[in-house]
């Protein structure tokens, strides 16, 4: 179920939106209800790529009970963007990778993990949904690279701002209290938002995504397949 602008309206989904073409993004998949999974399938979703580490893929007591049959026909792929327990990265990503200033470090430490995500996008079936926990930074890393790849930098700031505001709004109403984040009023949000957008602009401006992906093993055919997903 999508609205008139093509934005997803999947029951339970948090921070869900269209990126471009056949690519969507959202927060934790565990937030989707049984109806939400059916709605995503009806909207053509056949692949969900989970960017979280394996130990994050667990149900919370506040998550809905879901009929697993509702996920039938949707491939759920685990493709983490980082290596859990990596000492150097963990010293930098405190308390976790939660800011665009950490994106270059993520690429530097784990290029093979990032390329694997793009490989999964290239071979995905149907519409594809990318998600991490909040749907903001690990998802934002991949989305910003996708947008640079197809020269749609005009969407970088709107996508990131929407994702930051989306999860901030969720913190306001969620019954699950996040251990590190909480709802921010607008006057407290605007400064961190501007700082994050500046860091995002610096990251994308310093990177040729095609060069990075090809140097780290993504084939020209796979690059073409990724680009077709964004048409």
UniProtKB/TrEMBL annotation:
Gene3D superfamilies xref list: Protein tyrosine phosphatase superfamily (3.90.190.10)
Pfam families: Y_phosphatase3
Tyrosine specific protein phosphatases domain boundaries: 112-147
Coiled coil, from the record: none
Stated name of the protein: Tyrosine-protein phosphatase
Organism: Paeniglutamicibacter antarcticus
Upper lineage: Bacteria, Bacillati, Actinomycetota, Actinomycetes, Micrococcales
């Amino acid at each position: 179920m999508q609205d008139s602008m093509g934005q997803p309206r999947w029951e339970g989904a948090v921070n869900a939106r269209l990126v471009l073409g056949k690519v969507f993004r959202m927060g934790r998949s565990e937030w989707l209800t049984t109806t939400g999974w059916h709605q995503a399938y009806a909207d053509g979703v056949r692949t969900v790529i989970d960017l979280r580490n394996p130990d994050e893929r667990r149900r919370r007591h506040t998550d809905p009970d879901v009929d697993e049959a509702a996920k039938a026909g949707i491939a759920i792929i685990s493709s983490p963007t980082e290596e859990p327990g990596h000492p150097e990265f963990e010293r930098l990503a405190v308390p976790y990778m939660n800011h665009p200033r950490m994106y270059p470090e993520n690429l530097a430490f784990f290029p093979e993990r990032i390329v694997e995500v793009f490989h999964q996008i290239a071979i995905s079936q149907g519409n594809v949904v990318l998600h991490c926990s909040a749907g903001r930074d690990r998802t934002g890393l991949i989305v910003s690279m996708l947008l640079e790849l197809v020269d749609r930098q005009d969407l970088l700031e709107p996508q990131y701002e929407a994702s930051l505001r989306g999860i901030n709004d969720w913190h306001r109403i969620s019954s699950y209290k996040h251990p590190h984040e909480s709802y921010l009023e607008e006057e407290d949000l605007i400064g961190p938002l501007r700082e994050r957008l500046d860091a995002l602009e610096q990251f994308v401006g310093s990177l040729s995504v095609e060069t990075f992906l090809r140097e780290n093993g993504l084939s020209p055919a796979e690059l073409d397949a990724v680009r077709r997903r964004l048409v």
